[in-house]
Design brief:
185 residues, alpha/beta, globular, Rossmann fold, two-stranded antiparallel ribbon
């Protein structure tokens, strides 16, 4: 049974959105790696030992769960915790468009030229744009593919532009579910 699911992909590929939608259907606990990685969102990282302690505790206490986001590098020791890993990919231009919209939604006018968050947003978008072209030295598709190759569990790849509903249906089909099921089934 797939009671411990990890959804990963590039920033902006929809990992958190899919995790929340799927968790609602399956009645699983949604967890997000950003909640462990960041002490103060997007500015101060949690010390590695502390983030691992916290995530391990939640993975143990909150099963069944769906963990969204990447844990490559800092969470390599978690690989054995997963029953299924779902890898998401969408075309870079669409992903970056989504990220720009998300940053505007998050920071509003401050994300635009002259705004207090403009430089931070530009640096983030520049980093995110590297995903499909960079090597394993940064969060990239190369790094993710290397990480995926070391897993012992199945990997479901959704590598096209699908709506959230279509993604949920693909995962439910893969899991053998038709419609909503409770966590105990």
């Amino acid at each position: 049974m797939n009671r411990r699911i990890h959804i990963m992909g590039a920033s902006g590929s929809g990992t958190t959105t899919l995790a929340r939608a799927l968790a609602a259907k399956l009645l699983y606990t949604p967890l997000d790696s950003d909640d462990y990685f960041w002490e103060r969102k997007f500015s101060v990282q949690t010390e590695k030992h502390e983030r691992l302690r916290r995530i391990r505790q939640d993975l143990e206490d909150r099963e069944p769960w769906i963990l969204s986001g990447a844990v490559c590098g800092w969470g390599d020791g978690l690989k054995s915790c997963f029953d299924l890993v779902i890898f998401l990919w969408i075309p870079p231009n669409l992903r970056l468009e989504r990220l720009r919209a998300r940053e505007y939604e998050r920071y509003g006018e401050d994300s635009l030229p002259g705004g207090s968050k403009y430089e931070d947003v530009q640096a983030f978008l520049k980093w995110a744009a590297l995903y499909d072209t960079a090597g394993a030295e940064v969060r990239s598709r190369v790094l993710h593919e290397e990480w995926l190759s070391g897993l012992q569990c199945p990997v479901l790849r959704l590598v096209e532009d699908l709506s959230v509903g279509e993604r949920v249906e693909r995962v439910l089909d893969y899991l053998g579910h038709s419609g909503v099921h409770s966590a105990g089934e």
